[in-house]
Amino acid sequence: MISEECYELGSKSSIIRKIFSFGLKRKAQVGADKVYDFSLGNPSIPAPDTVKKAILELLEQPAEEIHAYSPAPGDAAVRKTIAESLNRRFGESFTGDNIFMTCGAAASLNICFRALGNPGDEFITFAPFFPEYRCWVEGIGASLQVIQPHLPDFQMDLEALERRINPKTKGVIVNSPNNPSGVVYTLDTIKGLAALLKRKSEEYGEPIYLIADEPYREIVYDGIEVPYLTKYYDNTLVCYSYSKSLSLPGERIGYIVIPNHLTDYTKVSSAIAGAARVLGFVCAPSLFQQVAAKCVEDTGDIDAYKNNRDLLMKGLTRLGYTCVPPQGAFYLFVKALEEDAYAFCERAKKYDLLLVPSDDFGCLGYVRIAYCVAEKTIINAMPAFEKLMKEYQ
Ligand code: PLP
After folding, report:
1. What pLDDT is recorded for position 12?
2. Residue ranges in the chain modelled with pLDDT below 50
3. What pLDDT does residue 200 have?
4. Domains 4-48+300-391 and 49-294 share a fold
5. For ligand 1, mutation pick of 132, 246, 248, 371 (most atoms within 8 Å of CB)
6. Ligand 1 mutation target, pool 111, 179, 184, 305, most atoms within 8 A of CB
7. Residue extents of the structural domains in the chain
8. Tell me, what's the pLDDT at 99?
9. Four-way CATH pick for 4-48+300-391: 3.40.1160.10, 3.40.630.10, 3.40.980.10, 3.90.1150.10
10. Is the CB of residue 249 below 6 angstroms from any atom belonging to ligand 1?
11. Ligand 1 centroid, distance to 205 Cα (angstroms)
């Protein structure tokens, strides 16, 4: 007998992957330029030139060094460089020991859930949320509890959170800038969250951990600041990834920040190491650890995403669509024109518009538009969005 749970997960693909696969078939039939595929969050801007330069330089090193296993938590010099960069940018005082290198945010989050959680525990997140949280949390026998957004601003509903927290709550997952809404949680919201978690942790005599999922930290617009959560709440673990900031999703590189001021730092730090071991996520890719250190404060051309956001927001608003104003990431969350977002996405397909219904993000009646695409895809898609709108008028 094999694992039914894994069979179920592996035999069904996610709705995003299904739509993406449909798009590939459709492009083969009618031509790639006739299909407006807004399904996947694959960065459309190239990695910065500094990445190529770093790789070429690193390849000059002896192959047996650059391709070797690193220590399990990562190369010491790389971890130190990352810690120093975080200190410079966010006024923290981390050392290399506070950084654990991983294979991207997916690995970082899985390690944290495994390290902190036990079967029967609860992790809470805020809709709309990245759908993989559910299988990762349920994978350790814990459950994912979902709080609906505060409307219309899509900030966290802290009153609902307070009602949901209970002695089984092990952690709260926060993703800002958010996939799929593009919203950045404000400093006031974060301060409110921190005060609530502190109060509840004291009441139960056990820390409630805050898990900050931050692959989009650098992708923000209009000079908005994304609060660094370790500064506001001691029991925070930060899960970071270079997939989006350096446009390196295929290279699987990121890290976890494990601050000294965690209530039980030594134990959690060991549990993170143990979870990485159990999951086989030790010794993150050596070459890309070094690339991350060499490009530690670089990003791709974020302005290209801003241009896409502005073009799409203006275009859709002019046509009468209602969008949640995004301050970051590369997603636009748009109200579906009928209650059933799946039915709406099916209708959109008639015009070769590939949108993702919001149901799996834990929030009904919206669609996600991933605007990490070429500018011309947005321009050429507008007549299709117009025809779709006319169907509902
Ligand atoms: N968290 C969120 C919110 C994401 O959008 C993604 C990827 O799209 C991930 C985590 C996983 O990122 P990574 O490629 O670093 O594993």
Report:
1. 85
2. none
3. 98
4. no
5. 132
6. 179
7. 4-48+300-391, 49-294
8. 98
9. 3.90.1150.10
10. yes
11. 32
CATH number of 49-294: 3.40.640.10
The model scores a pTM over 0.85: yes
Q: For residue 100, what pLDDT is reported?
A: 98
The whole-angstrom separation of Cα 20 and Cα 40 is: 7
Nearest to 124 by CA among 93, 91, 168, 87: 168
pLDDT at 357: 97
Ligand 1 touching residue 104 (CB < 6 A): yes
Per-residue pLDDT tens digits for 268-318: 999 999 999 999 999 999 999 999 999 999 999 999 999 999 999 999 999
pLDDT tens profile 97-143: 999 999 999 999 999 999 999 999 999 999 999 999 999 999 999 99
Write the residue with the smallest CA distance to atom 2 of ligand 1: 130
pLDDT, residue 13, reads 82
